[in-house]
Amino acid sequence: MKRLIPYIALAAFASVPLWLHDPYLLNAFITTGILIVAAMSLNLLLGYTGQLSLGHVAFFGIGAYTSALVSLGFDVELIGGIRVVHEPWPVWTGFVIGTLVAALCGYAVGKLSFKVRGAYFVIVTISFAEVVRLVALNWVELTQGPLALTSIPPMTLGFPGVGYLDFYSKQSNYYLVLAVLVVSYIVIQRLVYSRVGRAMIALKENESLAVSVGIDVTRYLVLAAVFSAGIAGAAGSLYAHYLKIIDPDVFAFLYTVTMVIMVISGGKGTLAGPIVGGLIFGFIPVAARSFATPEIQWILYGLLMIIIVFVLPKGIVPAVEKWFAAPSTRAGPEPLQAKMHDTP
């Protein structure tokens, strides 16, 4: 039965556009789904390697800006009078390139910062995110700065001579986000259950012991950073092509905090944790908006987070798994006890 839960959940989410026709709620599902993909990428670092990245939104924003610029085109002058002119490319290439550029940045940051883990790693990631934000804010010729990149085309899939599929409607964007979420889930699942994933978990549990048996610390942590950054970049690309406008606020620290809350509340180090935490904290503002002011909404948001941390310190998903496993655990010794009593 446990193996069927992901398929049942997928079927339930796939049916949402069939019965939900409220544009506002469908928009909430889409934006929450994008943030869940980003939270899943953060969970790969925080949950499976134990490394907290408070600058993870940088990769989200890099994916968004790269994908938008590839699909819009640009004309900029670099140092030395060199002019770079890029004509617009198909939107799907922007998604691919945005993901790859974010992954490459993850490699660079990981290679530099995993030599100074702990609090130093957190500082490096925050600094990187702030540098990228300042670049987006001040390189007006490329990013339009605070004026924002506008008229970003919607996601389009297809090839010349074959046909194109444009994601204009909310229903089509919902299925696009769901597809990327499922693919991201599968990639993370395969990685976690592989030899690489076991090495990552070993480093989180006991780094000294892992090193003593020959596990290369930097190699596996950098690999986790690459996958994590790439998936975050894919989420950022979806965000840009769905909203069709982005500005430097996409690098706001609030987005990283939201991802961390989703991961910790749902259960870090679990595949379903970011999804459960994302659905809960993604829809709290939607549910509270009908009866509470924005200030009260934030108070409710904070109170729920405090309650979860104190009552379910390991997160919602581990608590539910433990609750379902408890009856079988209690029932396990009974046959043995009965057998001992029946033995002459």
UniProtKB/TrEMBL annotation:
Protein name according to UniProt: Branched-chain amino acid ABC transporter permease
Keyword tags: Cell membrane, Membrane, Transmembrane, Transmembrane helix
Signal peptide segment: none
Presence of the UniProt keyword Membrane in the record: yes
Topology versus the membrane: Multi-pass membrane protein
Domain of life: Bacteria
Keyword Membrane in annotation: yes
Any Pfam family the entry gives: BPD_transp_2
Transmembrane feature ranges: 24-46, 53-74, 89-109, 121-140, 174-193, 220-239, 245-264, 271-292, 298-320
Localization terms from the record: Cell membrane
InterPro entries per UniProt: ABC_transp_permease (IPR001851), LivM-like (IPR043428)
